[in-house]
Structures are given as C-alpha cells and as structure tokens.
Amino acid sequence: MAEAEKLERVVFSRPKALSDTTTHYCPGCIHGIVHRLIAEAIDELGIQERTIGIAPVGCSVLAYHYFDVDFAEAAHGRAPAMATGLKRVQPDKIVFTYQGDGDLAAIGTNEIIHAVNRGENITTFFINNAIYGMTGGQMAPTTLPGQVTTSTPFGRDVRAAGYPLRVCEMVATLSGAAYVVRRTAINPREIRRLKKAILTAFKVQMAGLGYSLVEVVSNCPTNWGMTPIESLEWIEKNMLPYYPLGDFKVAEGVENL
Amino acid sequence: MHEEVIISGFGGQGALFAGQLLTYAGLAEGRHVSWIPSYGPEMRGGTAHCTVIISDEPIGSPIIYRPTSCIVLNPPSFEKYEPLVKPGGYLIVNSSLVRQKSARTDITVVEVPANDLAYEIGNVRVANLVLLGALLGINPFVKLESVIQALEEHVPEQRPAYH
Amino acid sequence: MSAKMLMKGNEAIAESAIRAGCQAYFGYPITPQTEVLEYMSRRMPQLGRVFLQAESELAAVNMLYGAACAGVRAMTSTSSPGFSLMQEGISYIACSMVPAVVVNVMRGGPGLGNIQPAQADYSQMTKGGGHGDYKVLTLAPSTIQELVDHVGLAFDLADKYRQIVFVIADGMLGQMMEPVELPEMRELRSPPAWALTGAKGRPKNIITSLYLNAPELEKINQQLQAVFRRIEADEVRYETYLLDDADIAIVAYGTAARIARTAIRRAREAGIRVGLFRPITVYPFPYEALGEVAGRVQEMLVVEMSAGQMLEDVRIATCCQVPIRFFGKMGGIVPLPEDILAEIEAITQGKPALVAREGA
To answer: Per CATH, which fold does A24-250 belong to?
Structure first.
C-alpha cells in the first residue's frame, strides 16, 4: 500500500459528504451528478458536520442514503416547511432541501413560495426534469406544451392542463430571495457552472443573506423514452428555450462571496 | 352564594372588560369564578356579551342562558336578555341608549343613564363601569372595593396602533 | 394578590407550553384558538425562542416536524378544520418517532362548521386520524387548570415515548377564563442523541418515515405498536366523582364532563344516586376501569358534544353489561346542566331517552 502511494497519486475520489453506496437512480440520470456536486461543495466549504439535508418525495426520496450528513425525509412538497423548522431552532446549521418539480412546483408550491418570501436562510436544489419520474412518467407542472407523458397521452394541452411553471422567474420576484439561478448539467462546461452555483448558494446561506435556490434543468431518459445522450440533446433543444439558464436574482452582497 | 351574570352590549362598549373585573373581584374574594365571552366574526359594532359566574361551589358550565343578574348596554341586548333574567333576578339597563321598558314584575329592573353619567364624569367609555356599580349597589354579591382593586391591577392593555 | 391568576384557556395553553420548555411554536390563525398564536407571538421572541406564523396548518405541522427533528420541544395548536389539514404531518411524525405536541381547540363541524365549542374530533384524535397504523396519546382537560397541567404533561409524555401527544380541548375551554396556578419555568432540555443537529463526531442521523422494504416497515409498525401497548398499560388516566354508591354513571370528558358535574350535584340534591366517570386520557381510553364500573351501576349515560363518538369506546368498555343511554349536542351547542339533569331524571322515571341511540 505504501509502495503504491509512492507510485500513484489520487486525482479523483468520492467526496467525504457522499456515502459509499450505490444509488438507485436510472443510468444517465443527472441526479447522480448533482448529488456529487453538492457533496463536493459541502466538503470544500467544510460544513459536513453542521449540514442537514431534507429529501423530498419523488425519485430523490432516498437521497438521505447518499449523503453523509444528517438527513430528514419530508412529506411530499413540505421540505421547505420542515427546513424552516429545523433552521429556525438551530440557525448555525446549514440546511438544504433537495426537491423535484412535482414536489416543489405542484404539491409544494405554497411551502416554497412562503419559505422564499420569508427569506428563510436555507438552500434549495430544485431538479426540474419536466416529468414525474418515480410514479412512472406523468405530467409535471413543468412539462412542456405538447409533451407526451402517461397522463398527457396526446401531449400537454395548455388549454386544459395549463402552462409549464417557471419557478426561478417566479420566486426571483420575492423579496426574501437572495440567490436564484437556473443551471443544467448537460456538458462539462455547464457542470462546472452548476458546481459554482451550488457553492455560491451554500455561501449565501452561510453569510445569512436569505433564500438561495438553484434550479437544475434535468433529464429523465427512462420516462422520456430516450438514451441518456438523446435526453441531454432534448434538454438543449426543447427545455432550455422554455427554461433559459441564467441568474434571476443575485441580491446585494452575493457577488462578493 | 351563586351568581350568574350576563353583560351585553355593542362591541367596544366594554361589556367583556366589565365582566373580567367582576371575575377578578370574585377571585380576590376567594370564590369559584368563570368568565366566558361570546366570540364571533364581528370585531366592532356587533353585539358582544360575556357570562360571569361567581359561586361557592365549583363551576360546571360557564355558559348559562338564564342569568340571575344582567347588564344590558344597548337595545339588542335588552331585547335578547330582558325575557331571560331569572325570576327574582336583576336587570340593569343603560337607559341612555335603551328606550324600551321592561314589563316584567318578577325581577328588579334598574334603569341607569350610564352614557350620560359617564360623560358627566368625563369619560364616556366608562359607561360599562357605571352600570357595574349600579348592579353591585343593588345586588352586592362582591364588594365594590374588590372591583376597584381589580380595576387598579388589570387596566386593559391598549390595543396597539397598527400603522 | 392571590397566588392564582385569571387566565383565558388559550393563553394558559401558550404560557404553560413556554414554562414546559417549548422552544418553537408554529401556528396559523383559526378561531377559537387564535389567542394561543397571538400570545406566543409576543412571548416567544421575548425569550429568544422561535415563533412563526405559518402560511397554512399544513406548513405549520411540517415546521413542527422539522423543529422536533432538531430535538427541541415544539408545539402547534389549531382548531378542527386546521387539525384536519395537519393529519398528513401528524402521520409522518408518528412514524418518525419524534416528540411533538399538538393542541386542538375543537369547534363545530363538519366542513367549515362554526366556531362554537364541540367535541366532534374525538374519533379523528383517538383512532389515528391520518393514514397508517398509529394512535396518539390524547389528554382531555376539563378545566383551565387542567389545561395548564396537561400541556406540560403532554411535553413530558411526548419525550417519554418519542411520540406526538395531543391535548383535546374545545372552544369553551379555549375562550373561558378561570383561575389558574402556573408551574415554574423549566429548564430547556438539550437535544437527544437521535436529533438532527449535524453529524459532528458521530455517524449521521436520519429521520424518515419511508421504509420501502415491507418486512422493514412491518418491523417499524411492530415497534410503534409496542409503544402504544406501553402507553395503554401505563398512561391510562381517569377520574370518578360521586361514583361509589351510584346507580347511574355519567361518562363524559372535557367540557361535557364539567357540565355533567353540576347536573350530578343537582340530581344528588334530589336524592338520585348518580356519579361521573371522566376519562382524562381518551387515548388510551380507560376501558378496564369503566368496564368495572359497568358491573356495578344500573345504567350509564354518555354525554358528548358530538353524535356519539366516545360512545363507541364506552360500548367496547362495558361489553353490553349495562344499558347505555346517549345524550349528545352537535354543531357547537353546549349542553346545559338542566339538559343533563333532565336525562338523569328520565332514566329514574324509566322514560325513553330524549336523544337515544340504538344499542347496548
């Protein structure tokens, strides 16, 4: 072993904040990338011992198995309320929620809007893949017009099912929001930008500046019925025009972090 | 002794507060006491009443429908409670606002122009206390001194101005 | 000044919680419990503790869940429609085995109902209420003093069993004032080892109610059931009043029980031997003690401000040993002592019940 160390140099390893376990995510799913980036950020910021995560209901319901930090599992959509309770009684801790589009933008819209609006000093990672993955591919609040899902077999008809919700644009209007950005993870450049945003979001919380939310335009190869590569191309071609990447709210003081 | 009192008036006339004073006075005299307000959606202008029970025995229901003593501060309260006062009981009427007359002969009715008297004293808002004084004058189930002591100890908080 | 002070039920709930070391309160305005929220909004910040008006009861109960996960004493309060909204969170809290306290100041229902006192959430509170197999230890105070005592006790029992505990009150108890003696302010307790406080120097803690593996969830259920069996064995509370020589036993809890007391005193004055059996815990229900009473009285009269919800527990307890008559008021009507007295007299005269139900 000692001999090997002399010959080899570790250039890539599992972040400390990521548990040594196999995830249940489908091949090609972006969840794995986002998990890793969050864990890297926790390591780099040295906050593993004071971070508390909150898992949603959805594909990432078991996220608490994958991060090596204290974790709670919330009721569907209620993660921001639960995070509020956890953070308010221990403001020195770093509290984040990890939520999908059904969880955050449908059943939990009330909780996210009010948590952001109160300027809760917590961080949300919002994974938007325009579909309910865990239940098998039903329409999500963020499903694109015309998109076929198992509950919009003829494509999402906006006259009947309404329009896809743009969460960042909406919550960025709230005074309690400090940092609201949309990123994706479809190529190394975007992954690096996402990592930077995750770091910034945590720093915003550590500095006590208010709510930070990072939306990740994500994929679902399984329920979209595509290969992983195709799904990334589909994001670029179909999702990014509707959900443009960018910074929607960067409050005063955030840029200096 | 067992006294069941209803005090009723427009919201803002101080019916609930007068009842609280009476309750504090009963407590200070070592009795069993209870106070319960009517509570409803109205904030101002609606009819508000409270029920006070002062007794030598533990109080079961704080809600009663036939008071042994009743103070009515406004006409709707008169209409509602005048028929309900128990025979042998007392009805104190704010005659500054209530024009109706009671035809009952089985109760003691005392008419007090409370708003006018309060105005003469210099504060029209104490009409409730004028009437409470009148009740205790004719039916002294607690001492006036106990009420005065309660008043000194429990002057209501001013509702903060929200602007 | 007297050692006792006059307090409105809702304010007594709040102050008692504070003195029991409640570190976080989350609530939403709803009559007839709003004074709890208002009182907390003044007092909690003064003490450097957490008060938060939530956007809904749904959010309030999940904030409670979060604070409870952090290992602090936390509480919410509500009234019937809000309590319905909280069922989701309550089920999660029950399965997660974190201590928390919920006070329900019941009002008339169903639906929006009204804001007057009622006892119609009994089944919801004592039989589970939310989804899944769980029950919640539920204390049923009948005076403002007891309300104070029970809120403090609720926190202790919640800690003891790592479970959510309810206090079942109603609009009358919430709104009325009575003299109370408040307990001393207690020390805040430090977070237990299972709490989510950051994995510093220990393996990470997880609090979840998700067990995808069925045998694992069965095991969790068995653990929960074991807790409930312990609660049923050790926490049954009830009180009797003039029951030793009674021919008739009235069974009532909370507000109905205190009104029944007055009726009982008047009936006794008229020479009728009637007494009261008052469950203080409605879950666990005092089945055994009431069953024993059933063996030595001629008749029972169940009085509730509902259509007869506790009545079902009385039937289970008494096993058809004794005729049961039911007198219930619904929709926010509070029974008068005279009403109950009339029922007692009707029993002695062998009259059919004024408001009777089949059975027994």
So the answer is: Rossmann fold (3.40.50)
| Chains B and A are in contact, defined as 3 or more C-beta pairs closer than 8 angstroms | no
Pick among C112, C178, C303, C340 to test the B interface (most B CBs inside 10 A): C178
Label residue B42 by pLDDT band (50, 70, 90): low
Q: In chain C, what are the domain boundaries?
A: 5-189+207-234, 238-348
- Outline where DSSP puts E strands in C209-304: 238-241, 248-251, 274-279, 281-283, 299-304
Out of C74, C208, C212, the one facing A64 most closely (by C-beta) is C208
**Residue C350 confidence class, pLDDT cut points 50, 70, 90:** confident
Query: Which subunits have 3 or more CB–CB pairs within 8 Å of chain A?
Result: C
CA separation (Å) from C206 to A64, A227, C131, C203, C284? Answer: 7, 34, 22, 10, 29
C42 in reach of chain B (CB within 8 A): no
| CA separation for the pair C245, C275 (Å, rounded) | 8
Q: How confident is the model at residue C3 (pLDDT cuts 50, 70, 90)?
A: confident
Domain boundaries, chain A: 24-250
Q: Does C158 touch chain A (CB under 8 A)?
A: no
Which of C2, C115, C172 shows the shortest C-beta gap to B62? Answer: C172
ipTM value for the complex:
0.94
Q: Which of B20, B39, B58 is opposite residue C177, by nearest beta carbon?
A: B20
Does the pLDDT of residue A242 top 60, yes or no? Answer: yes
Given a cut of 50, whether residue C355 has pLDDT beyond it is no
| Architecture of the structural domain at C238-348 | 3-Layer(aba) Sandwich (3.40)
The mean per-residue pLDDT over the stretch A30-43 comes to 98
- B46 confidence band (pLDDT: 50, 70, 90): confident
Q: In this structure, what is the dihedral angle of CA atoms C53, C54, C58, C62, given to the nearest 10 degrees?
A: -90
Q: For residue A67, list chain C residues with Cβ-Cβ distance below 8 A.
A: 204
Hunting for tokens 């001629």 — which residue is that?
A: C298
Question: How many angstroms away from the CA of C358 is the closest CA of chain A?
Answer: 41
Q: How far apart are CA C230 and CA C94, in angstroms?
A: 15
CA–CA min distance C31, chain B (Å): 9
Q: Is C263 an 8 Å CB contact of chain B?
A: yes
- The rounded Cα B97 to chain-centroid distance in angstroms is 15
Mean pLDDT of B99-103: 95
**pLDDT number for residue A10:** 87
| 8 Å CB contact of A85 and C63 | yes
Give bridge partners of residue C117 from the DSSP assignment. Answer: C107
Query: Over the stretch C216-229, which tens digit does the pLDDT of each residue have?
Result: 999 999 999 999 99
**8 Å CB contact of B39 and C115:** yes
Q: Under CATH, what is the fold of the domain B2-153?
A: Pyruvate-ferredoxin Oxidoreductase; domain 3 (3.40.920)
What residue type is B36 in one-letter code? I
Per-position b or e across A110-138, b if 16+ CB within 10 A of its CB: bbbbbbbbbbbbbbbbbbbbbbbbbeebb
What is the DSSP secondary structure assignment for residue C185, as one 8-state letter? P
Give C261's contacts in chain B (Cβ within 8 Å). Answer: 58, 60
Domain C5-189+207-234 in CATH: superfamily?
Answer: Thiamin diphosphate (ThDP)-binding fold, Pyr/PP domains (3.40.50.970)
Q: Which residue of B has its CA nearest to C6?
A: B24
Is residue C351 scored above 80 in pLDDT? no
For residues C69 and C191, what is the distance between their CA atoms, to the nearest angstrom?
9
